[in-house]
Design brief:
By secondary structure, the protein is mainly alpha-helical. The chain is built from 3 helices and no strands. The longest helix is centred in the first third of the chain and has 29 residues.
Length: 94
């Protein structure tokens, strides 16, 4: 016995459901990207130079900014690793 073919209406419903899911997935990805990449007004400027004492909280903030810049593809992996190593070496360990 042969199987019955799906109707055109069912195919349309399935396609509409897939299109709606894809649109929802894209919106979710866009919202996540906006949350990860704050606007330039919200992003603190990195602390330049290695002179002078700096608190652990400020160093951790700088490491966070470095991670955000790397995720936003504003620096290469090598630059990211160098900056992170330099900042972690300055972190005081009690």
């Amino acid at each position: 016995m042969a199987t019955q073919r799906t109707s055109f209406t069912k195919l349309q419903r399935d396609r509409a459901k897939k299109a709606k899911a894809a649109a929802k997935r894209e919106r979710r990805i866009e919202r996540a990207a906006e949350a990860k990449n704050p606007t330039e007004d919200e992003t603190p400027e990195p602390i330049e130079g290695g002179e002078g004492p700096i608190s652990a909280a400020e160093l951790l903030q700088e490491i966070e900014v470095t991670h955000q810049r790397f995720e936003a593809k504003l620096m290469t992996y090598e630059e990211f690793e160098e900056k992170k190593a330099e900042l972690l070496s300055r972190l005081p360990i009690d």
